[in-house]
Amino acid sequence: MSADIAPQERLITTIARLITDPSAPPARHVAVGMASAIPAAACWLLKKTGHSMRISLLQRQTGGPFSEGGRELFDLAGQGRIDLFFLSGGQIDGDGNINMIGTGEWPGTGVRFPGSFGSAFMYMMTPRTILFREEHSPRVLVEKVDYISAAGRSAPDVVRRGSAQALVTGRCVFSFDGTRFTLASLHPGETCESIAANTAMAYVTPADVPMTPDPTPAELALLRGPVCEEMLGTYPDFCRRVWGRALQENIA
Amino acid sequence: MTPIDIDALAALVPDGAQLALPPDDSLAPCALVRALVRRSPRNLRLVGVPTSGYAADLLIGAGCVASIETAAVTLGEAGTGPRFAAAVKAGALRVLDATCPAIHTGLQAGEKGVPFMPLRGVLGSDVLAHRPDWRVIANPFAADDDPILLLPAIRPDFALFHAACADEAGNVWVGRRRELATMAHASHASLVTVERIVPGNMLHDERLAPGVIGAVYIEAIAVAARGAWPAGLLDEYPADSAHIAAYAKLARSEAGFAEYLAQHVHNHPARTAA
User: Fold this and answer.
1) Less CB within 10 Å around the terminal CB: N or C of chain A?
2) Which of A149, A237, A22, A173 minimizes the C-alpha distance to B246?
3) Are the beta carbons of B100 and A70 separated by less than 8 Å?
């Protein structure tokens, strides 16, 4: 069964489960930023299963959630009207710091990443952040990020609503308690040893680490049908890679 | 307001001008930027509002840009702007890394004519550490310690964007893309391309008026059908993601970028369509 499941499909359903995790503070309003195909798919999956939370997907050319332009997301977050957001990074370290700037000399003479986007603000203004990064390697999960786009923790006198809830990678899920990461589940084919070999950031390995659950057949059917339909216009390359859908199929 | 030719519009940008540009998914002025590259001004200072993509990458690759203030230079799924990354690597570009709401806030200060505005978050970021022009102060209204960031107003010389339409009075319709209104208000003047000119005055239409940028902000307009291409325009046409992917691949090398310019910029003096 699991051989038929695309790795990205597992990440999508894993993120969907984290969003609805009953032990986390309630997510009444979830927003998804740019270049976030997997979180966007997780939100579409929840929508298609009839979930009632408000979901605002930014990267839509038409029919988007806001009417006050690009700043409305940040104004909402500043007021505390967004409960959960997603961030990624070219590098992520054990303090939950993320680097979307680059490596080498400032401002990124080694590898230059696109830039920090809204991360320096959103990470601090939303009560929950789910970090995601498909590539799980020592060059991504580093001991210390070269540059901090957005800090994982803040000094006590700094206004901050929350921190990372979890980090989802192509190999495993880490939970984050505000201070450190703990290995929470392993994707098929991974062991605690393989994770250790591919991770340079600090984290805790508990005695028992469960496997990440498979997507259910019902979830897979939704992903490959209606969720893919919704995603094609915004993430054509992702849909082609994961579901083999043609680039321009729905753009007439 | 009588529309002018797109090359005449580009000719209004002098060397050293500070230009505000929207991202590729928000009325990007791609045809105007190609016209600008043909004219090839020097030492432009770009502001991505709050990010830029194809438009900034083209200008950077063509050697027109001295500095860029932006939260990212991104081609979406096609990754970091390749000429931007190459210029950073070569040390040929001054980058003022920012974060999206900082740019919005700086422009909001600009449109109000006040010198600065505060913003939450950002403390602890190396973006702040590399911005000596940004200040952290103690919130003067708080009883306890409460450090907060102040951002200087951004007042670009020109805002450049491509709108769906303008009317005979020179008003421009951008719909819900209200960050472009803030960008236009904060800038000293706006240079705008549009798909078409419509008769009458949109400010007299209660339904259209909320999506309008008034002619008071608009310096000049040119008609450029499909002027956002290869970016998309609202519900009028989608982004040409195949073209953007092809650009991203070609522009990885200087030779490939030169080939792109020869084929898509210099070879079509009045190119406006895909």
Assistant:
1) C
2) A237
3) yes
How many Cβ pairs closer than 8 A exist between chain A and B?
Answer: 176
- Nearest chain A residue to B74 by CA distance is A114
pLDDT recorded at residue A3: 55
Q: Give the mean model confidence (pLDDT) for residues A31-38.
A: 88
Domains with residue ranges and CATH for chain B = 6-98+154-261 (3.40.1080.10), 116-152 (no CATH)
Q: Nearest-CA neighbor of A70 among A80, A60, A79?
A: A60
The ranges of chain B with pLDDT < 50 are: 271-274
Nearest to B127 by CA among B97, B153, B85: B97
In chain A, how long is the greatest CA-to-CA distance?
A: 54
Of residues A69, A109, A153, nearest to B88 (C-beta): A109
Copy the structure tokens of residue B59.
């200008």
Q: B137-169 pLDDT, tens per residue?
A: 999 999 999 999 999 999 999 999 999 999 999
Q: What's the CA gap between A77 and A162, in Å, rounded?
A: 12
A98: closest chain B residue by CA:
B125
Give the residue on A whose Cα is nearest the Cα of B71: A117
Query: How much is the ipTM here?
Result: 0.95
Interchain pair A158, B179: CB under 8 A: no
> Is B97–A101 a contact, with Cβ atoms under 8 angstroms apart?
yes
Q: What is the pLDDT of residue A236?
A: 83
Prior bond of B14 cis (ω within 30°): no
Which domains, and CATH codes, for chain A?
2-243 (3.40.1080.10)
